[in-house]
Design goal:
single chain; 2 domains; 15 helices; mainly alpha; 306 residues; Integrator complex subunit 2 (Trinotate prediction); INTS2
Length: 306
């Protein structure tokens, strides 16, 4: 593991063979395998009973600590797989610990207060998952930029982003509300394109877009949501793109009416992304979107039936 962390010239066939061996070990003795893997991924010290025990206790309550050096790990597709298997293990352990606390609270709580305890339990799990997803996105974006610069190609980073995208997808499928929370808090705009491409469940965002726009806070959040929606829309057939564009315009109009806000110029970038989808007539579509943009900026104009 340490060699793979520092040496980028190890042949892929050797790395792949190591991954197969590691998986066999993780099945035969999972507890030892995962804690030792976590140790060697995060520390340069030799493994001892004390530091292994300390790390295990820390990760059982705060599994996100494993992400502290992940921007380096995410530069190697084999290490990414090993890391995410290990990460899942400690996330599961953390949930077991949280569940023990939950059951203890339930036993000591009056029946009339069960709803409050349940809400607290759900909030705790959602907050931890939200934190994990946002940190994972940040680390993956940093690693992606390093890989593209090192190899002058996006091909090495695609293998890594595909694995990480599937990891994030698991969270969104298990709890779709997490997708709404992640995009309410937001992440860097430079991460949007790879998340849309490699996270299959991002289509759920379509249903949350109008609601998120109603709760938008500031120009940066507005631009982030618009760009995410525009990039996501381009993955669909032309009929769906037109439907999404209609919803996009309607949402902006509603936002202008209800909050008396000006629709800021950052939205134009999202409109240009939509425009690029109409390859059959870029000049016509650009002119059409310019017309729509002009009318959208004027909140007094009625865009119905146009």
């Amino acid at each position: 593991i340490r060699i793979l962390l520092i040496d980028h010239s190890v042949p892929y066939i050797i790395k792949r063979s190591f991954l197969r061996i590691w998986k066999k070990v993780s099945v035969s003795c999972p507890e030892k395998c995962y804690i030792l893997t976590a140790h060697y991924l995060t520390s340069q010290e030799d493994a001892s009973y004390f530091n292994i025990t300390t790390l295990s206790k820390k990760l059982m309550t705060e599994p996100h600590k494993l992400l502290e050096s992940s921007h380096i790990i995410f530069q190697n597709s084999i290490l990414v797989e090993i890391f995410l298997y290990t990460f899942r293990y400690f996330i599961c352990l953390s949930r077991v610990e949280t569940n023990k606390i939950y059951k203890s609270l339930r036993a000591k709580t009056e029946k009339t207060d069960f709803n409050e305890v349940n809400t607290l339990y759900d909030t705790l799990n959602s907050t931890q998952d939200l934190f994990i997803i946002l940190l994972t996105i940040l680390a993956a974006t940093q690693a992606n930029e390093v890989l593209c610069e090192r190899y002058q190609s996006s091909i090495p980073s695609q293998a890594v982003l595909c694995i990480i995208g599937c990891f994030i997808h698991e969270f969104f499928v298990a709890n779709p509300t997490l997708l709404k929370l992640v995009h309410y808090h937001g992440y860097e705009n430079r991460s949007i394109t790879w998340i849309v491409k490699y996270v299959p469940s991002m289509h759920i965002f379509n249903g949350y877009f109008p609601t998120l726009m109603q709760d938008v806070q500031g120009e940066d959040s507005l631009i982030f949501l618009c760009l995410t929606y525009a990039h996501l829309s381009t993955a669909y057939p032309i009929e769906q793109i037109l439907e999404n564009l209609s919803l996009f315009i309607a949402t902006l109009k509603k936002l202008g009416r209800s909050h008396k806000k000006h629709i800021l110029l950052g939205v134009l970038e999202a409109l240009s992304i939509f425009s690029g989808s109409f390859s059959f007539s870029p000049y016509l579509s650009t002119a059409m979107l310019s017309y729509i943009k002009a009318k959208t900026l004027d909140t007094a104009f009625n865009l119905e039936d146009k």
